[in-house]
Amino acid sequence: MTEAAFTPRVFSGIQPSGNLHLGNYLGALKRFAEAQNQGVQTLYCMVDLHAITVWQEPADLRHATRELAAGFIASGLDPARSILFNQSQVAEHTQLAWVFNCVARMGWMQRMTQFKDKAGKNAQNASLGLFAYPALMAADILAYHATHVPVGEDQKQHLELTRDIAIKFNNDFGVDFFPITEPVIEGAATRVMSLRDGAKKMSKSDPSDMSRINLTDDADAIAKKIRKAKTDPEPLPSEAKGLEERPEARNLVNIYAALADKSVDQVMAEAGGKPFSEFKPMLADLAVDKIAPISTEMSRLMQDVTEIDRILANGADRARAIAAPILRQTYDIMGMVGPREL
Ligand code: AMP
Ligand code: TRP
To answer: What is the atom index within ligand 1 of the atom nearest the CA of 15?
Structure first.
């Protein structure tokens, strides 16, 4: 397949299932805004149907979806330039997901580490939706013929499966219909670690709130969490190589680099050799500078949920206009009888 056959189009999604944190911002949201600002077509989705693969209180889901939309906008996504919507408003996602449930193989799903992590010890009691999760994710992407998907490192395996589904569909039906999507996992912070444990990913499900910086934290909370972040007693090394065996130090340097739009080497040139008593205040100032305005803007936007709902409805209409003809053509390739005008 020639890549050039598909117009560049960027798609990504985030689950409305709790607090947005610094990992989501640096691994995903900030990079969503960069893609938008490069002028390609961008679609960003609140994947509520993925969220319900584990239990969600209805009132919490409703709040989290709107707050996520506010987080998208506060992070620089412009509803006029990017299509912002929630997944359950565009039925083509679930329709195409069913097709992909029939393309993907049980063995492919069984290998997914996120399923194993989330299902835990009692996999028999996990929802069927949690198992089929990656087929819905492939549908999210391929319903738009998206060519590029910015995500954090933890989504790599799911994106490989998306490619496998596209390849198998194209081969089975002898077509060049679905693009082989490129994951875009770039920058210094594709895997932001917990502030309490450099071996664990920063995550919304960590019981300790001190482990993460939430996008809803105010300036004091942000500064305090950085001040208390776990480190080792040594000063920063003078070059990046010296960070290899020092996960907590490396994490703070990576966060600094990503927030400052600098390379790790540039940060080491500025801060190499400094003790944490100097580096942490530098990082805290930078983080407050970049994150506190997002938090303020999110609470401002949340004061008018009618406006947020209007933005999402408008986004859904624009998303459907792209996805509906692609679904229709998929059905036609597969031999389903339907309207002829494609
Ligand atoms: P989720 O909230 O799990 O739906 O994740 C939304 C996006 O944030 C995905 O692109 C993830 O890869 C990314 N992400 C989540 N946690 C982290 C982290 N600790 N570091 C970097 N990216 C992350
Ligand atoms: N699985 C992703 C996560 O947990 C969320 C997601 C759903 C997604 N559909 C997507 C990401 C499509 C990128 C593209 O983070």
So the answer is: 4
